[in-house]
Amino acid sequence: MNILMVGDVYGEPGRQAVAKLVPRLRQEHAIDFCVVNIENAAAGFGVTAPIAKQAFESGADVLTSGNHIWDKREIVEYITKENLLLRPANFPAGTPGVGHVTVKTGPHKIAVLNLMGRVFMLPLDCPFRKADEIIPEISKETPIVLVDMHCEATSESIAMGWYLDGRVSAVVGTHRHVQTADERVLPGGTAYITDLGLTGPTDGVIGVDRDQIIQRFLNQMPIRFETAKGPAALQGAVIVVEPETGRATSIRRLRVPA
Ligand code: FE2
After folding, report:
1. pTM of the predicted model, to two decimals?
2. What separation in Å is there between the alpha carbon of 14 and the centre of ligand 1?
3. How many whole angstroms from 144 Cα to the centroid of ligand 1?
4. How wide is the angle at C-alpha 196 spanned by C-alphas 94 and 244, nearest 5°?
5. Is 68 marked active-site?
6. What's the CA-to-centroid distance between 47 and ligand 1, angstroms?
7. How do 184-185 and 191-193 pair as beta strands?
8. Can you give the pLDDT of all 258 residues of the chain as single tens digits?
9. Pairwise CA distance, residues 153 & 50, whole Å
């Protein structure tokens, strides 16, 4: 089973990259299932219902998110009804939406779990203990479990990879918008990468107009961020999983110009 996981979609250039490239990549790699992190798709800040719908139409099966999920207030109503758009599972109890979902794909079921780190981020519930709580439940339904670990600290992603090795099919990191070159299948059969990278403009600073960010560093004054212009790329990974066991057999990084 071939799984495409796409790193943080940033603004209009990222959305266009998804619309153009996800259908092509699905063909080229005979993709059975596609997960896209969508939390920066609305000009860097959150996601709206039309943007989520467009991503599903482009071939995403499940959308994940992170710290920016609530930036567009109207998403609260949408996420309450649409459980294919996830928010991190370790938000406090009572938060709208769900943090994991199990989807039927052909003869198989695939579960996706969205977690968020706490180092230099919101003080959410412990993502490690939350994974311990949820994974046994979803593993009753399917051995194929994909985890998006939305993190600032690389150490927290790496620790989660080792913590879940042998218990899930993949742990992929998102949020940093810089792809890491550490993809591997861990000894227990879990595909791992610290960060999938950015799907969006390549010539900005993690998605934002570079002149604005340089000014911000020069004078430390607040500035309204705008999405960088210029070329864009899709970044992510293709993961091959044995459907019967849920074990990953390979992970390959992708960086495709849009
Ligand atoms: Fe984020």
Report:
1. 0.97
2. 14
3. 25
4. 75
5. yes
6. 12
7. antiparallel
8. 999 999 999 999 999 999 999 999 999 999 999 999 999 999 999 999 999 999 999 999 999 999 999 999 999 999 999 999 999 999 999 999 999 999 999 999 999 999 999 999 999 999 999 999 999 999 999 999 999 999 999 999 999 999 999 999 999 999 999 999 999 999 999 999 999 999 999 999 999 999 999 999 999 999 889 999 999 999 999 999 999 999 999 999 999 999
9. 31
